[in-house]
C-alpha cells in the first residue's frame, strides 16, 4: 500500500531541475508525478517514478543528495468534495499531513493524491476502513 | 607626550639590559611554578640559569595556542588562583575557550600600557573616550576601559553596536577619542553623515582602531569621514590584550612596548629567527606578566620589525601592520574565527565528513559571514520544515561557539571547490 517517493535537494540556481530530469530521461526512467517545495535558498523536488530504486541509484551516482520516503497514493473521486472527504477522515484521527500533491490518472480520469504523513500505517488503516481506495506501489509506478 | 617617558624613551642598550633582567626572572618563575614550562625546558635540556642574554632566548621552546588549549583552563597560570583578579577568554574550537588570567599587578601594567596608547593618540585627562570595543570575555573593552581610567580621561563604556545611540552620545558627551574596530568606525562614520551630522561639528580628534586588519586606504577614509587622526593598535589576549603595541602620530608602524615584551620575527616554516626588516611571524615573550607569563608565543601574525629611530622620540621597535596569518584564522567583525570551529559544530550535528565554505564579504563597511554547508544524506529530509529547522539550529550553535552570527546556506554536494582532494574552506571577498 506504500509508494516509494524520491526526494532530491536542489539549490535555487538555474538548470538544476533540468539536470535531474535529464539524468532520469537518459536512464529510461519515467516521471509519474512531481512536486517542488521551495524556500528562498533551496528547493526539494519530490518524484514518483516508474522505477524508484534505479532512480535513486542514478541520481546518487550523478552526485545529487537523494532520499526515499514512503508515501500513500489515494484515489480521489473527481467530484466536488472528493478530497475534503479524505482529509476529514485523517483529521478525525489526528493524523497530520506533512504535504500532499495531486495528479490525474490517464485511464480512469480519477485524481490521485499523494500524501506524506508521519503515521503511515495508521493512515492506511483508517482510509481502508472508510473504503477509500489506496493504490499499490506497483500500480502507481506503472500508470 | 608620553605616559611613562623613562621607559618609552629609554636608550636601547639600557632597554636591552632591562629586558635581559626581566627575561631571567620570567624564565625562572615559569620553570618554578608552571609544570608545562618545566617539562618543555627539561625536554629541551635548558635550565633557567642558561638564559643570560637576549640571544639565549632562542634556546627556549615556543608556546602555541594549542598549548593553552591543552592546559585549559588555568594550567599555565604561574600564581595561585587567589592572586588572580580577572579572567578573559577567546572562543575555542570545541566550545572550550582559550583562557587567560591577570593579577592586580598585571592589570596595573596593562592599564599603564593602554594609557601610553591613549597618550600617543593625544589623550589627556580632559578627553572623553567612547569605548565601542565589546565588553566581556574579549579583552578589547576592558583593556581600553582600564587604560582610559588610568590616564584619568572620562570613559564612556558603551561597548559595540547600537549605532544611533553611539552617535547621540558622541554628540551629547563631546566624545574626543573613539576606540573600536576600524570597520565599525567606518560604519559609524557613514551613519553620522546619513544622520545629517557634519563630523566637523563633533569634538572627535582621534581614533584607536584594532582587533582586525585594516589598510592605509581605510585610514584615509576614516580620517576624512570622521575628521580625526586614525591610529592602529595591536594586541592579543594570550600575550595580554590590546596595548602590546601602538602606533604613534608618525603613522609609521606600531611601537612594541619592549619593557614588557620581547618581539622576535621567525620564518614560519623553519621557525628560525629572521633579522629586522624581513617579513615573518611575530613571536612574543612577556617580561612582567605574573598570572600568565608566556614564553616565545607564536602569534601567527605576519609583520616586519623596524629598529630605526622614530620621529616621536620613542626608542621601542615598530611593527608594520599585520599583513597576514600563518594559519587559517579569519578576523570577522573583530572576532577570531577558525574554520575548524565550524567543522566542530557540523561534527556535533552528526555530519561525519562535513564540507563547508566560509564566505566572508564586506557589505557596506561591515563584515558579513555566510556559511555554505553541503547537504549530506545525514542532514537531508524531504520536509522543508526539517531543513529550515536544521539551518536555525546550526545558526544558533555557531553563534554560541563563535560569538558572531552567520547566515547558513545549504548547498548541493560538490558545490564547494576542492583542490587536490582538499576542500577550500574560506572565500574571503573583502577588500580592506
| Integer tally of domains of chain B | 2
Q: What portion of residues of chain A is helical?
A: 25-40%
Whole-number mean pLDDT of chain B: 93
**From the helix content, strand content and strand pairing of chain B, which structural class follows?**
alpha/beta
Distance between the termini of chain A: 15 Å
Question: For this structure, what is the CATH class of the largest domain in chain B?
Answer: Alpha Beta
CATH architecture label name of the largest domain in chain A: 2-Layer Sandwich
Largest sheet strand order of chain B: 4-3-5-6-7-8-9-14-13
What is the CATH class of the largest domain in chain A?
Alpha Beta
CATH topology of the largest domain in chain B: Rossmann fold
SS field, number of helical segments of chain A: 5
Oligomer: heterodimer
List unreliable stretches of 5+ residues of chain B.
none
* CATH-assigned homologous superfamily of the largest domain in chain A: VC0802-like
Number of helices of chain B: 11
Determine the CATH superfamily of the largest domain in chain B: ANL, N-terminal domain
The count of domains of chain A is 2
How much of the sequence lies in strands of chain B comes to: 25-35%
Largest sheet of chain B: 9 strands, mixed
Strand content of chain A: 35-45%
Amino acid at each position: 500500500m506504500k509508494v516509494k517517493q524520491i526526494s532530491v535537494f536542489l539549490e535555487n540556481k538555474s538548470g538544476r531541475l533540468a539536470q535531474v530530469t535529464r539524468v532520469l530521461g537518459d536512464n529510461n526512467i519515467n516521471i509519474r508525478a512531481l512536486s517542488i517545495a521551495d524556500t528562498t535558498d533551496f528547493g526539494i523536488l519530490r518524484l514518483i517514478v516508474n522505477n524508484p530504486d534505479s532512480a535513486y541509484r542514478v541520481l546518487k551516482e550523478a552526485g545529487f543528495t537523494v532520499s526515499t520516503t514512503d508515501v500513500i497514493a489515494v484515489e480521489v473521486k473527481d467530484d466536488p468534495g472528493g478530497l475534503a472527504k479524505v482529509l476529514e477522515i485523517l483529521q478525525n484521527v489526528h493524523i497530520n499531513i506533512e504535504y500532499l500533491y495531486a495528479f490525474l490518472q490517464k485511464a480512469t480520469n480519477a485524481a490521485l493524491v499523494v500524501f506524506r504523513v508521519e503515521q503511515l500505517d495508521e493512515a492506511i488503516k483508517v482510509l481502508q476502513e472508510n473504503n477509500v481506495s489506496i493504490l499499490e506501489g506497483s500500480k502507481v509506478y506503472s500508470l | 607626550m608620553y605616559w611613562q617617558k623613562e621607559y618609552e624613551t629609554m636608550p636601547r642598550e639600557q632597554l636591552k639590559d632591562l629586558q635581559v633582567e626581566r627575561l631571567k626572572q620570567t624564565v625562572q618563575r615559569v620553570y618554578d611554578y608552571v609544570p608545562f614550562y618545566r617539562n618543555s625546558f627539561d625536554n629541551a635540556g635548558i635550565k633557567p640559569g642558561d638564559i643570560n642574554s637576549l640571544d639565549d632566548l632562542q634556546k627556549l621552546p615556543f608556546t602555541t595556542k594549542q598549548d593553552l588549549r591543552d592546559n585549559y583552563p588555568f594550567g599555565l597560570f604561574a600564581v595561585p588562583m587567589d592572586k588572580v583578579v580577572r579572567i578573559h577568554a577567546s572562543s575555542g574550537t570545541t566550545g572550550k575557550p582559550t583562557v587567560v588570567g591577570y593579577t592586580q599587578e598585571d592589570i596595573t601594567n596593562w592599564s599603564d600600557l593602554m594609557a601610553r596608547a591613549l597618550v600617543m593618540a593625544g589623550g589627556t585627562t580632559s578627553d572623553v573616550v567612547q569605548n565601542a570595543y565589546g565588553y566581556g570575555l574579549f579583552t578589547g573593552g576592558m583593556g581600553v576601559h582600564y587604560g582610559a581610567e588610568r590616564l584619568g580621561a572620562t570613559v564612556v563604556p558603551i561597548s559595540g553596536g547600537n549605532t544611533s545611540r553611539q552617535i547621540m552620545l558622541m554628540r551629547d558627551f563631546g566624545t574626543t577619542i573613539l576606540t573600536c574596530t576600524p570597520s565599525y568606525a567606518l560604519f559609524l562614520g557613514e551613519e553620522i553623515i546619513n544622520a545629517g551630522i557634519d563630523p566637523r561639528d563633533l569634538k572627535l580628534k582621534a581614533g584607536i582602531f584594532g582587533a582586525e586588519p585594516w589598510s592605509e586606504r581605510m585610514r584615509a577614509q576614516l580620517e576624512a569621514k570622521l575628521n580625526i587622526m586614525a591610529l592602529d593598535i595591536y594586541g592579543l589576549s594570550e600575550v595580554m590584550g590590546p596595548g602590546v603595541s601602538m602606533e604613534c602620530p608618525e603613522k609609521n608602524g606600531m611601537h612594541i612596548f619592549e619593557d614588557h615584551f620581547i618581539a622576535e620575527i621567525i620564518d614560519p616554516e623553519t621557525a628560525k629567527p629572521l633579522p629586522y626588516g624581513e617579513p615573518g611571524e611575530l613571536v612574543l615573550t612577556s617580561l612582567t606578566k605574573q598570572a600568565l607569563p608566556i614564553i616565545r608565543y607564536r602569534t601567527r601574525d605576519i609583520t616586519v620589525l623596524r629598529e630605526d629611530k622614530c620621529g616621536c622620540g620613542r626608542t621601542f621597535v615598530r611593527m608594520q601592520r599585520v599583513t597576514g596569518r600563518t594559519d587559517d584564522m579569519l578576523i570577522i567583525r573583530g572576532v577570531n574565527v577558525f574554520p575548524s570551529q565550524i567543522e566542530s559544530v557540523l561534527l556535533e550535528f552528526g555530519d561525519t565528513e562535513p564540507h563547508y565554505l566560509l564566505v566572508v564579504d564586506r557589505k557596506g563597511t561591515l563584515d558579513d559571514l555566510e556559511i555554505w554547508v553541503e547537504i549530506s544524506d545525514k542532514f537531508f529530509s524531504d520536509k522543508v520544515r526539517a531543513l529550515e529547522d536544521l539551518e536555525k539550529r546550526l545558526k544558533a550553535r555557531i553563534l554560541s561557539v563563535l560569538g558572531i552570527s552567520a547566515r547558513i546556506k545549504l548547498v548541493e554536494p560538490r558545490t564547494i571547490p576542492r583542490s587536490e582532494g582538499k576542500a577550500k574552506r574560506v572565500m574571503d571577498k573583502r577588500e580592506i
